[in-house]
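Minutes, project check-in

Agenda point 3 was the complex the collaborators sent over. CS summarized: two entities, 295 residues total, and the question is how they sit relative to each other. Sequences were read into the notes so everyone works from the same version.
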Amino acid sequence: MTRRLLPLVLFFVLMGFLALSLYESESELPSPLIGKPIPEFSLENLITQQIHSNTEIIGEVSLINVWATWCVGCEIEHEFLVELSQDETVGIPIIGLNWKDDDQLARLWLNQLGDPYSIVLKDPEGKTAIDFGVYGAPETFLIDSNGIIHFKHIGPLDREIFEKDFLPVIGELN
Amino acid sequence: MIRNKIFSLFILLCFSGVAADELNTKDQLRYQSLIQEVRCLVCQNQSVAESNAELAKDLRREIKLQIKDGKSDSDIKKYLFDRYGEFILYEPAFSQKTFFLWFAPIILLMMFYGWFKKIGN
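CS then shared the predicted structure for the full assembly.
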């Protein structure tokens, strides 16, 4: 009897696995860069035109925010980023990576909507973005003082996500 | 005189662009087959070869550059894998996680064989 039922049991086990994977968040792709240092780069500052390397921008627990003026999600999260940059209880610098953008438009955007960034580097070719494994702006990375990536959020950032996913990790890192 | 120099410089630049952009036939074939194997992440379920998304263009450019630099196919795949994870390659890498995926057909085939033999008897 048990032997005859075995295929049926196996069938249901398989169905169970398939059903489970239906409810898994399918759009979330884990980044293989978590736990690794930020990639090497030397990029121009959008405002001062100075060149900065990856080693120059680390030293503090910070966020790296990939944005562009053509990106709709970036507009949505911008207000929160400005708010966060002024929040002294959190006190986390936000490094901007301006991805495949027009310099003038980008500067205009910061002038008009406010500049939440401690520094904005530009990546007009998108080469550094590939090194960061970026596939759609906005994306926000959390790095420690040694430049190790601890968390990555894809899509617009808001207070709820920040408090749920970022704050606990920031607390541990400090 | 200066105009001539500028003109020849211009011509030179034009042609250097063309020359740098071209791959030899063998590399061109490698390029074509590589970009078929790379998934476009923005437009999931299209390969990078088919997609016009900006990121796909950037990835194609990067793959072409690396072929020109003499990188091997596995170097290039590792480059992509290190940044984007295994999702970017259509063919999953062989690992503990994908072990069952790779061996399932053989395991199932053997199970069915045993089963049919029993029914036959």
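Noted in discussion: The longest helix of chain A spans residues 2-23.
Follow-up: revisit at the next meeting once the mutant set is ready.
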